[in-house]
Amino acid sequence: MSKIVITSSGNTVKSDFDLRFGRAAWFCIFDDETKETKFYENEHINANHGAGTQVAEKMLELKVTKAISGDFGPKAKELLDKFNVQMVIVQEETTVESIINKLITK
Amino acid sequence: MPRRIRLRKVVAPPIFKGYKPYGAHVESKEHIELLYEEYEAIKLADYDLMKHKEASELMGVSRPTFARIYEAARRKIANALVEAKEIKTVYGNAWLEKDWFVCIECNSRFTIPKTISNHNCPLCSSKNIESINKH
Prior knowledge:
The complex is a heterodimer.
Chain A (H helix, E strand, L loop, with lengths): L2 E6 L17 E6 L5 E5 L9 H11 L4 E4 L4 H9 L3 E4 L6 H9 L2
Parallel strand pairs in A: 1-4, 4-5
Antiparallel strand pairs in A: 1-2, 2-3
Helix pairs in contact in A: 1-2
Chain B lengths: L7 E3 L7 E2 L11 E5 H12 L4 H8 L3 H20 L3 E5 L3 E3 L3 E4 L5 E3 L17 E3 L4
Parallel strand pairs in B: 1-5, 3-4
Antiparallel strand pairs in B: 2-4, 6-7, 6-8
C-alpha cells in the first residue's frame, strides 16, 4: 500500500497542480490501492516560517510514501529524505487529475 | 538581511553518524556538529587531494567560500580532537546531488529512497532514467 501526496491549488481532482510544497493551498492524498483521493487544506499556508517542515511533518503523520510537487525547500527535503519519502518534482502546469492518471496507467 | 546561503553540493555524504572519543580522562559532554558540506570539503581537499578551485567548482560555491567551509571543518575537527569531544554529522546547507534522478520520458525529477528497490520513474514507470549527478 502506498499513499501519495500531490500538492493542489483546490480541493477537487480538477484543480490545478500546485508547484509549491510548503505553501500549497491543498494536499491531495491519493491511495495507490483503493484509488481513493482525500483532500486536506494546508493550515500552514500563511505561516511566517517553517511551512515546509510543518507540512512535511504532517505528511509523515499521514504515512505518505511519495510526495509530488513543483519543488521542495531544503528543510522539507531533508525531513522527507530522512523518513524515506520519495520526492518527485514535476515542473509543468498540469492538473491533479492528469498526475493521478499518469500514476494509474503505469 | 544577509544573503541567503547557497546550497553546497555534496556528492557523497558521510557514511557514519559521528565519532566518539574513548579512554578520555574527562568525559566531555559537549559535541561539535560537523556539517555535511564541511565533511565534503575535507574529503575533497585532503582525501581526494583536489585543488581548492576544482573542489569549489564541484560543490557549486566560489573558491573563497570553499576555503571558509574547509577552514571551519578543520577547526571543528581540531577542537574535537583536542577537547575530546564527540563529532556529530549534521545536514547543514547541503543538497545531495546523488539522490536525484531525472526521467528522460516525462522530465520529472525524483529521489529514490533506500526503501524502494525498483529503479524506474515514479510517475510514468519508464525505466529510462538518469542520475542528475552525471556530467
